[in-house]
Fold each of these.
Amino acid sequence: MGGKARHFKWEVEYMHWSPDGEEGVVMGINGQFPGPTIRARAGDTIHVELTNRLHTEGVVIHWHGIRQIGTPWADGTASISQCAINPGETFLYRFKVDKAGTYFYHGHYGMQRSAGLYGSLIVDVAEGEKEIFQYDGEFNILLSDWWHKGSHEQEVDLSSNPMRWIGEPQTLLINGRGQFNCSLAAHVSNSSASPCKLRGNEQYAPHILRVHPNKTYRLRIASTTALASLNLAIGILALKGSPTPPPTHHRRIFLLNTQNFIDGHTKWAINNASLVLPATPHLGSIKYGLNAAFNRKKPSRSVQARLRRDEARGKSELHDGSGVYMLRFNTTVDVILQNANALRANVSEIHPWHLHGHDFWVLGYGEGKFTEKEEAKFNLKNPPLRNTAVIFPFGWTALRFVADNPGVWAFHCHIEPHLHMGMGVVFAEGVRRLGRIPNEALGCGLTGKMLMNNLHN
Ligand code: C2O
Ligand code: CU
């Protein structure tokens, strides 16, 4: 089955908007916030021609949950899979959606997700196939969080010495709409004292989901929040039939998550390295062997976990890291994410880790320090297959995936300010198997220079 090609032309720009009743500036697409919903069928190819209409900054878009098999340059991660698209320039994202599901897309450069650059991507089952559940209608619900302070100011706050924390969001948004200062809405909605404007301006009036009695509806729910963890519980029988993981691993990587100071700046670090992104995207520099483009020193495979709740942190071994974990193609990799103390005594935070380019199995999680004997408790029979998993405070989480997708892939905490402060690593596998990487993905840093030289020779 060939599948259809679906074409979109998008322009990203800043615009005035009132997501929660207070006017601010959002990053919109084609004049919309959130951006347009993409709807396709499994097997289709999406073409998004993205033009950057921001005046002074680059932009990229990541398709969260899409594995990008054979198209790693379309993954939309600045400095990893491509150069940020310059103002006035257009980049073509062309990729196949191979699995039905509810996905979303978002900016992946600086804190552009906090600025409102996101939207939904829905993939229906392939032409001629049936959904496993029967339903009469469906609703799409995209959750996000919103600050009145702009994303650039937030970036400066987080990077300054001392760091200024951005605090809780002013408003939670559903499909880009919320009500600032409206936590009392349930109690006072009938009184004229209510600050909540439940009707009125169509930018923030809530969406009303219209349902008919005795009908069955599917809710598609995705969260693109930059910080907030939202809990939602529905009792449904879990779907059987996900593939099972390989029974053993070839390699196990321990990733210790700590919070530390580098020259007075607060950073998150993984095995003592705090992620910094290079000027030359990793995909091109690895493919073409540009050794000067990033730190070729291998990142540490494990460091002694400092887990005691009162222990001093932030030792001198900490450094900026742009190292890459090189994975042997087609091997099975276990990742043990180990949580630890943050800088404040007795505080350990929750981190949702997201892997690009793959789904992984969540084999287990637990409290305290991971030891090899926990392995006996791994769920190898029916572990959940996901692309994001949480590590709990002072806990560990064990993941398994197969490194079968040639490319360079980010693996990071999905809390936007944490990623900005270095909470991520980069995996690479099978890069030499890739054919030609499109020039547009290479046009900056050393790969850009290389292109120029080829042009002039
Ligand atoms: Cu949804 Cu690398 O992120
Ligand atoms: Cu985090």
Note: The pocket of copper (II) ion (ligand 2) is lined by residues 351, 413, 415, 418, 423 (CB under 6 Å).
Amino acid sequence: MSRSPRLVAVSNRVGPVKGAAAAGGLAVALVGALRERGGIWFGWSGRTVGAGKARLHTEKADGITLATIDLSQHDYDGYYNGFSNNCLWPLLHFRIDLIKFERAQLETYWSVNRRFAQSLAKLLRPDDLVWVHDFHLLPLAEELRRQRMRQRIGFFLHTPFPPTEILSTLPVHESLTRALFAYDLIGFQTEDDLARFRDHVVRACGGRARGEKVSAFGREIRVGAFPIGIDVDQFKRYAFTAPGNKEYARMRKVLRGRDQFIGVDRLDYSKGLLRRMDAFGRYLESHPRAHGKVILLQVAPVSRGSIESYRNFRQELDREAARVNGRFARFDWTPVHYLNRALPRRTLAGLYRASRVGIVTPMRDGMNLVAMEYLAAQDAANPGVLVLSRFAGAAQYLREALLVNPYDGEETAEAMHLAREMTLQERRRRHEALMRRLEAHNVDRWRRDFVNALADAPAWLKATRKKS
Ligand code: ADQ
């Protein structure tokens, strides 16, 4: 048994342990870290039950304890669909126009966080390191402190952090920011997100920010940028061994020499799918020689389908894809292939590999793992080209991609053209540089850097005493 402190990961959903590799990104990273330290993964069970019937379940899998609690339908609606996805998600992606703020939902959000804290507190040991993930759980540390928990607690935000002017539109921004100061370490995806957090603390909360130390509300905490990455070797393997290899060969056969552009995104308005369709239409408009020779494969599984803004968005996208096809299709060529389905990761890897261009054009994104997966799946001897939005966190690291402003349809269309025409030499030069960056920022480094920084953060009691 390792002598280092035990790690306790907390996220809205608890991912599979056995099939973690298949589930991808976060599950792989967390399971690796939890196995190393014999830890607990805590979160919602994914089940909704009658009010008063919620239970804590624990099970062991591969040396990791999975601890989950149920939620009532009312709690799920208020906490998950309501405040998390109808208010915080658009806010964090700079979409004030889509925010639906309801005090009753905020209360449910907070009470679910309290319930999480009460159940989790019973499982914690004094020297555990607690690592909380994402915007569903902003007040969790504050609620754990109420339960007299003194452990080191870190928080990682997977989404962007918005400018203070946007955040301040949320009526309760101050109590949420105050709650963040119950953590000992807060991690962001990029330096820009970190800078916006610092700015918010100074300008909206009267706090101070000096390097990695930020203070406000009578407490000093540590902050940092910890860019998430992927397991590069694993994804390469997926693309070049069965069944990914087989999917690749099958796709090539189906394509019959045509070039494929690929987009893979949850069906979410932040991913820029509407403007991407429009840009592809513009590309076809201005490059008639591409007709019959290029297709756009857009894989977009339905996400958060019970929320109205998502349903509306899906209808608009259906219309936009149909518009481009209606305008340009011929009896022997359909330019847009559009699937609303999740695919196994190995299949995805084969499809990425078979695609000449990867199109990743979110309007705003915390990082974007698809951009990295596309690169890792390329054949280094004859790689495809990544077209990447400047507003994805990944653009701060993947500088050799063709960077575009997704609000500029003409620029995006032109990048599609440049990507398809790029010489082999140029493609290889860019791909080589990008792979070096991917390897430097792989997912192991992300979780090691975060967990080490959390272990080094001053303990709760010490930090509080110093202030008083
Ligand atoms: P997401 O918004 O979900 O993640 P992203 O980073 O692109 O966005 O990750 C999506 C993952 O889902 C990828 O691993 C991708 O392969 C997978 N996926 C997408 N479509 C799929 C399909 N049709 N079938 C199977 N798998 C599919 C949030 C933030 C991001 C941040 C990540 C990680 O919004 O900004 O990069 O967390 O921190």
Note: The two ends are 38 Å apart (CA to CA).
